[in-house]
Amino acid sequence: MNFQTVEFEGAAGRADQLLKPTLPEIVFSGRSNVGKSTLINKLVNRKSLARVSATPGKTATVNFFLLPEMRFVDLPGYGYAKVSQSEKRRWAGLMNGFFESRRRIALVVQLCDMRHAPTRDDQDMIDYLGQKEMPFLVVCTKTDKLNKTERAAQEKLYTELLAGSGIEFIPFSAENELGLETLKERIETAVRNCPPAE
C-alpha cells in the first residue's frame, strides 16, 4: 500500500464540518503531546505533513489526510488541563459527532506514552472504543526515552493491562522506527478488511 502519496485534505472544528466518510479511515487518538503528529509523519515519511507542536492542546481540530486507499484522521488531543471548560465541551461535541456518525473506521490507533501507565483519560478512551466495538490497537510512543530495564518494566505493565482484553499494543519510537513496519502492516490489513460503503 502506498503511504508516500499523501496530502492534507481538510480540518473540522465542529461536527457539521466533518468530511464525508468516502474512504476507510485510520484514526489517531491520544492525549495532548503524546506524539500523534510525529507518528503520522513517520508513517508517510514526511517531516511536517502533520504539524508537531511543543505546546499541549494545540491541535484543536479533526485533521484529515488523503492517501490513495485510505484517509488518516488526526483527532485533537485530550487531557490538557489548561484548556477552558467551553473548549472541553466543544471537544466532547466534536468527538461524539465523529464517532457517532456512520464513518468507515478501519482502525483506531490509540496512543499512550510508554514512559507512564495509561492515564484515566487514556483508559476512558480505551473503554469507550471497546464499548463501541471499534477496531483498535494501542501504540506506546516515546519508547526510546526509556533504558532497557525501564522499557522491560513498562512492556510488562502494558501486557498485563491489555492482555486480558485481547488488545494488541505496539511499542513505538520515532527515533529508531521501532514498531513502524508492524503498524503499517496492521493498517494495511485493516484497510483491506474494511467493509465497503453502504
Write the layout of secondary structure elements.
Layout: E1 7-12, E2 25-30, H1 36-44, E3 62-66, E4 71-74, H2 85-100, E5 105-113, H3 120-131, E6 136-141, H4 148-163, E7 169-171, H5 180-193
Parallel strand pairs: 2-4, 2-5, 5-6, 6-7
Antiparallel strand pairs: 1-3, 3-4
Order of strands across the main sheet: 1-3-4-2-5-6-7
Q: Spans of 5+ residues with little confidence (pLDDT < 50)?
A: 53-57
User: What is the C-level CATH assignment?
Assistant: Alpha Beta
- The tally of structural domains comes to 1
Number of helices: 5
Kindly report the average pLDDT value: 88
Q: Please provide the count of β strands.
A: 7
User: Portion of residues in helices?
Assistant: 25-40%
CATH architecture: 3-Layer(aba) Sandwich
Structural class: alpha/beta
Largest sheet: 7 strands, mixed
User: Strand fraction band?
Assistant: 15-25%
End-to-end separation in angstroms reads 23 Å
What is the CA-based Rg, rounded? 16 Å
Order of helices and strands: EEHEEHEHEHEH
Q: CATH topology, which one?
A: Rossmann fold
CATH superfamily: P-loop containing nucleotide triphosphate hydrolases
**So what's the overall shape?**
globular
Description:
This protein has 198 residues and is an alpha/beta fold. The protein has a single domain (7-193), classed as 3-Layer(aba) Sandwich (Rossmann fold), CATH 3.40.50.300. It is built from five helices and seven strands; from the N terminus they run ββαββαβαβαβα. The protein has helices spanning 36-44, 85-100, 120-131, 148-163, 180-193, and strands at residues 7-12, 25-30, 62-66, 71-74, 105-113, 136-141, 169-171. The model is unreliable at 53-57 (pLDDT under 50).
